[in-house]
Design a protein that fits this description.
about 300 residues, alpha/beta, 6-stranded mixed β-sheet
């Protein structure tokens, strides 16, 4: 299939994990029978919350938990087998599961849930870069990071700058961007990991994925943060200063968005930027419909209450 052009982007709301027990899908645009339908499910900053919050929790009683995510993931995959499940980092740190097991249970759980890829968040370094490498033994998914140079660490050869997924003859290129570690993570934890300029790296990755690999969709897994008032690079600035990215799945700032933000990129095209809070409370969903000459991103809001 040839490279396609965005002709419509209307956004998709998050799938919210709540209390009672129904599933709603709203605003699905009609599609031709020849269309390819690709569903993207995504999370960020789950922070070792493998279980639901307790019933006594003041803000999120009974919310979240891996079992509810598994139920929702299975439901969506039964609806559309052409589904990718992605994560934007910080799977580690936040509950005793990480304190006792160092990330093993987080990666085993993500594998059981069927994730295809995640990127490296700053909290992945909390037990050191060597621990990330050790825990990858338990991961049946890709760890993708484009702007962390890890060649002088134990992660060398274990982390990919990008990955290409072919789903129903649609080529989907995924790359990852991490936040500046200096001043955020102790040097003795990230060791010789080098941070590279995310804007420059993003454009290099897009050129490779679009022009050399002929990808139909390009997705960035970002742990840069949604928006900052200063000059620090964030997802909104990334979208504005680059071209060729279709979707930025964000993390780090724990930003709850009711629906993706649409940003005009450097060539005047729309980019979807989404982030779904933290702790596995929400799951984002984006549906793409493609044919030989066009790409349509339709509005599809989903609400899961359990």
């Amino acid at each position: 299939m040839n490279r396609r052009k965005f002709i419509k982007q209307t956004g998709v709301a998050s799938a919210v994990l709540g209390f009672s027990g129904h599933y709603l899908i709203n605003g699905i645009s009609a599609k031709k029978s020849s269309d390819k339908h690709i569903t993207i499910l995504h999370t960020n900053d789950v922070h070792s919350h493998l279980e639901a919050f307790p019933a006594s929790h003041s803000k999120f009683p009974n919310r979240g938990g891996a079992s509810k995510r598994k139920f929702y993931f299975d439901q969506v995959r039964n609806e559309n087998t052409n589904t990718l499940i992605l994560d934007a980092g910080d799977s580690f740190q936040g509950t005793p599961y990480f304190n006792f097991y160092g990330g093993e249970l987080e990666f085993k759980t993500m594998s059981k849930l069927g994730y295809h890829a995640t990127t490296i968040g700053n909290h992945e370094f909390d037990n050191g870069v060597d621990n990330i490498a050790a825990q990858l033994e338990h991961a049946n998914f890709d760890l993708i990071s484009s702007n962390y140079d890890v060649k002088n660490t134990l992660l060398d050869g274990l982390v990919q700058p990008h990955q290409i997924y072919e789903v129903d003859e649609v080529k989907i290129g995924v790359f990852g961007l991490g936040i500046e570690l200096n001043g955020l993570v102790s040097k003795d934890l990230y060791k010789e990991t080098k941070y590279l300029n995310p804007i420059e790296v993003a454009q290099d990755q897009v050129r490779l994925l679009r022009n050399e690999e002929n990808c139909d969709l390009v997705i960035c897994l970002s742990h840069l943060g949604y928006s900052y008032e200063n000059e620090k690079i964030d997802d909104l600035k990334l979208a504005k200063k680059t071209a060729g990215i279709d979707l930025i799945i964000g993390g780090h700032t724990h930003t709850f968005l009711d629906e993706p933000t649409q940003v005009e990129n450097s060539e005047g095209q729309k980019v979807l930027v989404n982030q779904v809070g933290w702790a596995g409370l929400n799951v984002g969903r984006i549906d793409f419909y493609l044919n030989k000459s066009e790409v349509t991103s339709t509005s599809k809001a989903s609400l899961l209450n359990l």
